[in-house]
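Hi V.,

Quick status before I head out on leave. The structure for the redesign project is tokenized and pasted below; the design run finished overnight.
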């Protein structure tokens, strides 16, 4: 080959490579949001939808892939069956990425639905970004190549929570109360196992499961807690199921401490009020007084929506997706999924990693306590004059749990 021909070949190759690097720039990527906009958990769903729209708007102003995100909302009524209908609707609209988080039952149905859809429709694959459904089975026995979880799972959070409880000598008698579905059942399971391993002297004096998003008065449950002599309650409840539980506890004068997963939203802070000062703890992948970049997101979200931006995994989800698309130089879900495996990226809580083995995000966790505002902790939660102040932080490796996932990858 002559020098001129060889040089021309190099220039063509370089030009094609440059075109590939920018192939997705300016492309609109539809993301279907599948969660409740009706029923008792509608207010939580509305916040989550606003959160995704908020993050999409911010990333549309600039992201590694240069794409534009469009959020398509579909009400699943917190139902696994309705979630599958929503998946079909999204696919019919040509959507290739879906997000969901409220309810592990719905998430399990979507994982199965996406797996089957992708098998039947090669070339039209769909990727599922799970931002809040935390049943450990979703990245263990039910793990899927097409599913990526951005929240820490139930076992990871319980590992951090019980490591903190281990050193709290006032915890002697624990009552477990949880929603009767995958997540709530797993909270109870891991709480009992972890406490037995770390604090075998602690007594489990009650273990209740109740219907998800159906109980309107928790007075009978609180009466059982009081009668048990529990000094501590551990619950994975969220939304109305936690807000109403806390209200009933306050009305009954229950003074036990609460260790929770989701006390920072859904009306729960308002129900807690000043009377619960120092008695409620939460485990999560962040807290309201982190400051820095997350503090800026909190402030802007509250100013725009008069609401708290409590699901920052929405930021991790779209940031990971944009970063994966940039690395894949494509918006094709098959190529993007491959790029997101093992991906390290900067999120609101530092550098995080999407573990390749099971598609479970590895990230730091924090324990925060409900208390009055002070000079260091200034974020006013739900306008209560109260906040969740950080008590303990755990690096990602501390709360990370092993996986039994046997990932089946496309050939």
């Amino acid at each position: 080959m002559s020098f001129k021909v060889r040089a021309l070949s190099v220039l063509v190759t370089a030009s094609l490579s440059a075109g590939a690097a920018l192939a997705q720039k300016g492309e609109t990527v539809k993301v279907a949001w599948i969660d409740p906009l009706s029923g008792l958990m509608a207010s939580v769903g509305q916040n989550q939808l606003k959160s995704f729209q908020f993050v999409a708007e911010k990333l549309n102003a600039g992201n590694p892939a240069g794409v534009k995100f469009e959020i398509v909302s579909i009400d699943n009524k917190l139902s696994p069956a309705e979630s599958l209908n929503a998946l079909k609707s999204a696919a019919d609209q040509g959507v290739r990425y879906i997000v969901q988080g409220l309810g592990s039952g719905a998430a399990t149905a979507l994982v199965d639905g996406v797996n089957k859809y992708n098998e039947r429709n090669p070339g039209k694959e769909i990727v599922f970004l799970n931002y809040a459904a935390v049943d450990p089975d979703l990245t263990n026995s039910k793990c899927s190549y097409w599913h990526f979880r951005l929240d820490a799972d139930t076992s990871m959070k319980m590992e951090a929570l019980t490591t903190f409880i281990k050193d709290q000598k006032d915890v002697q008698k624990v009552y477990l109360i949880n929603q009767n579905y995958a997540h709530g059942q797993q909270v109870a399971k891991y709480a009992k196992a972890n406490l037995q391993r770390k604090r075998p002297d602690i007594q489990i004096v009650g273990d209740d499961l109740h219907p998800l998003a159906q109980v309107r008065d928790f007075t009978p449950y609180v009466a059982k807690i009081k009668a048990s002599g529990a000094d501590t309650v551990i619950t994975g409840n969220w939304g109305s199921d936690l807000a109403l539980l806390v209200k009933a506890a306050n009305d009954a004068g229950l003074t036990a401490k609460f260790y929770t997963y989701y006390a920072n939203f859904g009306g729960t802070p308002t129900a807690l009020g000043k009377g619960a000062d120092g008695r409620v703890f939460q485990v999560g992948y962040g807290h309201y007084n982190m400051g820095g970049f997350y503090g800026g997101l909190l402030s802007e979200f509250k100013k725009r929506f008069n609401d708290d931006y409590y699901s920052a995994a929405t930021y991790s989800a779209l940031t990971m997706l944009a970063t994966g698309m940039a690395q894949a130089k494509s918006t094709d879900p098959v190529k993007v999924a491959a790029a997101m495996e093992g991906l390290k990226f900067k999120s609101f809580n530092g550098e995080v990693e999407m573990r390749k083995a099971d598609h479970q995000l590895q990230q730091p966790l924090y324990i925060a306590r409900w208390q009055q505002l002070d000079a260091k902790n200034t974020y006013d939660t739900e306008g209560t004059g109260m906040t969740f102040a950080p008590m303990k932080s755990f690096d990602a490796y501390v709360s990370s749990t092993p996986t039994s996932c046997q990932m089946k990858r496309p050939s």
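Above is the designed sequence. Residues 155-284+364-399 form a domain with the Rossmann fold fold (CATH 3.40.50.2300).

G. will cover questions while I'm gone.

Best,
W.
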